[in-house]
Amino acid sequence: MKLNQTNVINMIFYFFILLLAIAVMVAISNRWFIYNINVTHSLNGLVYAIHKGAKVEKGNYVGFRWKGDQFYKSGSIFVKIVSGVPGDVVKVEGRKIFVNDQFIGIAKEKSNEGMPLEAIKPTVIKEGEIFVSTPAKDGYDSRYARVGLIQDKEILGKAYEIF
User: Fold this and answer.
1) pLDDT of 24
2) Following DSSP, what letter does each residue of 93-120 receive, concatenated?
3) Which side of the chain, N or C, has fewer Cβ within a 10 Å radius?
4) How far apart are the first and last CA of the chain?
5) What ranges make up the beta strands (E) of 22-67?
6) Domain assignment of residue 67, given as a range
7) Are 91 and 103 in contact (CB under 8 A)?
8) What torsion do the CA atoms of 83, 47, 163, 55 make, to the nearest 10 degrees?
């Protein structure tokens, strides 16, 4: 196909129509979804859609607001995997963390920046709490006391990996 001025103008027109349609869809979906970009290597995905208020279950991705610490500012949105729900038992052997005898990961002694990290204490997860994790060895999740169990009031909803 030979490109002439009319073809180029048509291609540009359809490209802008497509962009406009995507922008309208995102604007409309903001009522039900929050979009989050993962800036760490804790999960494989880069972009996640969080369905506001959707119930989460073990194995789901969950979006929640971070309470803040020396690593991340308060209100940051995190996406992790739900690995423990009310009634589950968190067990700690040295720095190895288990939920209902399923190995979750090792709580490192120091962050990548050299800051000391305290492991979560053994507990039974109560109503209104969940244990979150990531498959990454450097993931900052419920293995650490500072993160701990996530409270219902911090949960935004069920998250879905977009890409």
Assistant:
1) 83
2) ETTEEEETTEEEEE--SB-TTS-B-PBP
3) N
4) 33
5) 33-37, 47-52, 61-65
6) 32-161
7) no
8) 40
Q: Indicate whether 139 and 104 sit together in one domain.
A: yes
Question: Is this prediction's pTM over 0.90?
Answer: no
Domain count, the chain: 2
Is residue 107 within 8 A of residue 119, CB to CB? The reply is yes
What is the per-residue pLDDT across 67-93, written as a single tens digit (0 to 9) for each?
877 788 888 999 999 999 999 999 999
The CATH number given to whatever domain includes residue 76 is 2.10.109.10
Task: Give CA torsion, residues 15, 21, 25, 28, to 10 deg.
Answer: 140
Opening angle at CA 60, ends 57 and 62, nearest 5: 95
Domain identity same for 81 and 1: no
In single-letter form, the type of residue at position 71 comes to F
* pLDDT, tens digit, 9 for 90 and up, residues 47-70: 999 999 999 999 999 999 998 777
Both 1 and 20 in one domain: the answer is yes
10 and 58 in a common domain: no
Residue in the structure block whose two tokens are 């991705």: 61
Q: Give the Cβ contact number of residue 82 at 10 Å.
A: 21
**What's the CA gap between 77 and 117, in Å, rounded?**
21
